[in-house]
Design goal:
The chain is α+β, with helices and mostly antiparallel strands. It is about 20% helix and about 25% strand.
Length: about 180
């Protein structure tokens, strides 16, 4: 699995919209280094993050905060996700709030799943693929399905990397990419 991220030189700067540093990701160590910085999965015109500037993407990220249930037995762990998708190319990184209380909810697994995909050059198609993933796996955050989503950077100790035989769009049989 190979994909491209675009990062800033900052971590935790929500107001930033510029992601000028292209990073080719081909292994867990590459992703670990890139995830330390705020980043996006989309190439944007003039490196400026907004939906209207969408150029292309070969990866999409889904956010899992486990807010779908207050029962710990229902929570999805990073390892659970790999087991659910044994043949799918995916990389999983803990989020900055992994195993921490957030928004009045107790500590729980919180992570980002990066799915390698064939190159997509249409913003609406990209967003539809994210919605299709959410429909199939509703534990992913419904509020994080837009194409201009950024991910907060944070130090990462553990990355789960799975070079699968297939991509998530093939599993879901979502349109031509």
């Amino acid at each position: 699995m190979d994909f491209t991220l675009y990062r800033s030189d900052f971590a935790g700067v929500e107001a930033n919209c510029r992601y000028p540093r292209q990073q080719k990701i081909s292994c867990a160590e590459d992703l670990k280094a890139a995830a330390a910085f705020d980043h996006v999965c989309v190439a944007f015109e003039d490196c400026y993050r907004k939906r209207e500037n969408f150029l292309s993407a070969d990866v999409l990220v889904m956010d899992c905060d486990n807010t779908h249930s207050e029962n710990p037995a229902d929570w999805i762990t990073m390892e659970n996700l790999l087991a659910m998708l044994p043949k799918v190319s995916v990389a999983i990184v803990p989020s900055r709030n992994h195993m921490k209380p957030k928004d009045g909810k107790c500590a729980r697994p919180r992570f980002h799943a990066y799915f390698g995909i064939p190159d997509i050059t249409d913003e609406q198609h990209y967003a539809e693929l994210k919605r299709a993933i959410h429909r199939a796996y509703p534990f992913f955050d419904e509020a994080a399905l837009d194409a201009a989503r950024f991910i907060y950077g944070c130090p990462v100790e553990k990355v789960l990397w799975q070079d699968g035989e297939t991509t998530i769009d093939q599993v879901l049989k979502v349109g031509d990419t």
